Amino acid sequence: MAKSPTGRWLRIPASRSLVRDLLHLEQAVPSFAHDRIFQLAELAHCRDESAHRIAWPILFIKAYAQMAADHPVLRQCYMRLPWPHLYEHPQQVATLTIHRQHDDQDWLVWGRFIDPQLHSLRELQAKLDQYQQQPVPKIFRRQYRLAHFPTPLRRMAWWLSYHLSGKKRCKRLGTHFLTTISGAGAEIQEPPCIHTSGFTYGPLDETGACRVTISYDHRLMDGHHVAKMLSEFEERLQTEILAEVRQLGHVLRLVKAA
Q1: What value, to the nearest 5°, has the Cα angle with vertex 143 and ends 181 and 137?
Q2: pTM of structure
Q3: Rounded to whole angstroms, how far apart are CA atoms 43 and 246?
Q4: Would you kindly state where each structural domain of the chain is located, as residue ranges?
Q5: How many Cβ atoms from other residues are within 10 Å of residue 164's Cβ?
Q6: In b/e form, how buried is each residue of 185-219, taking b as 16+ CB within 10 angstroms?
Q7: CB 13: neighbour CB atoms within 10 A?
Q8: pLDDT, tens digit, 9 for 90 and up, residues 131-179
């Protein structure tokens, strides 16, 4: 009689440690999500025609930051200690979830963009290129080291950053986030949220439309407010971001002509 196969115990890889920690933090945030279909055909056309291609996450990050500059609540966070209160950060720190391969493992790491509304699209793209190309242990040194700590020490580090100082929380974790899998042809229906707000977007269809979803902490914002933000977010992409993409293409054409 053939011997039946047996299973085996496997150690959870370090590459999954930080994801587990974030999901642990998320359980304490009463988050909801609302979505809207954005019409981005003209922006998509200009982006395709530009000689200097800007990644979609960069376009969304800058548009969201421009909008957030007019909405202080998007720089705020709910703090439980020493008593329930709000902290408002003087800067915006956008956090982008990035998928990387390292040592034959899939890693989720988080790139930070400080005050993206104050930087050009090319500057932001250069920063994204660094996050995507430089070795994970180098460009994400702090995250990589933390991922290898024992779980109790990691959770303590997260707890201290998240609960004791609004300044440190915003500096290290960001004031809002973007996570997307649109490049794989799929969308996240309700992005996990440890911030006051975060967003995701799906792939563009043949008409240039895509679904954009904002996830938010209901202790600070309501659905009516978020619905208005979604409308303003779309408008920023259709106007200010579109104008910069057009200008970028125009400048590059002049350089080529010269």
Answers
A1: 95
A2: 0.91
A3: 9
A4: 14-248
A5: 14
A6: eebbeebbbbbbbbbbbbebeeeeebbbbbbbbee
A7: 13
A8: 999 999 999 999 999 999 999 999 999 998 898 889 999 988 999 999 9
Per-residue model confidence as pLDDT tens digits over 63-108 = 999 999 999 999 999 999 889 999 999 999 999 999 999 989 999 9
Distance, CA of 194 to CA of 216 (rounded, Å): 9
Cα-based distances in Å from 17 to 20, 79, 106: 5, 24, 12
| Residue 38 Cα distances to 44, 87, 176, 188, angstroms | 12, 31, 20, 15
Instruction: Quick: pLDDT tens for 107-132.
Output: 999 999 999 999 999 999 999 999 99
The CATH number, out of the four listed (3.60.10.10, 3.30.559.10, 3.30.420.10, 3.40.50.11720), of the domain defined by the range 14-248: 3.30.559.10
Torsion of CA 59, 63, 66, 69, to 10 degrees: -120
